[in-house]
């Protein structure tokens, strides 16, 4: 069975994560190159203006913490996906 990787879409009004075409609303762990990472999430609201009208969009964003020379750094999963990193969601 072919592994299903996390994908990311930035629509005009919100950000969306999917796996195998199904939206991901909650994510606790992901696997990257055989290593398991705990995922942190937050609801993020971003205001925007369209032809003079003010709107806002709310999306769930996901991050993992990586160790970089002894310092923990938060990295957004969308940044990794855009860099072509294969991320497998651990859904169970």
Question: Can you offer a commentary on this structure?
Answer:
This protein is mostly beta strands and 92 residues long. It has one domain. Helix content is 7%, strand content 63%. It contains one helix and eight strands. A five-stranded antiparallel β-sheet has the order 7-6-5-4-8. Strands 1-2-3 form a three-stranded antiparallel β-sheet. Strand 4 and strand 5 form a beta hairpin. The model has no long low-confidence stretch (mean pLDDT 89).
Give the gist of this structure.
With 92 residues, the protein is mainly β.
Give the helix/strand layout.
Elements (H helix, E strand, L loop, with lengths): L5 E5 L4 E5 L2 E2 L5 E4 L2 E16 L2 E16 L2 E6 H6 L4 E4 L2
List key phrases describing it:
single chain; 92 residues; mainly beta; five-stranded antiparallel β-sheet; three-stranded antiparallel β-sheet; 63% strand
The first-to-last residue Cα distance is 17 Å
What kind of assembly state do the chains in view correspond to?
single chain
Dominant shape: globular
Poorly predicted regions are none
Strand order of the largest sheet: 7-6-5-4-8
Instruction: Please compute the radius of gyration using only Cα atoms.
Output: 15 Å
Structural class: mainly beta
Which percent bin holds the helix content?
A: under 10%
Number of domains: 1
The total count of strands amounts to 8
Into which percentage range does the β-strand content fall?
over 45%
Order of helices and strands: EEEEEEEHE
Number of helices: 1
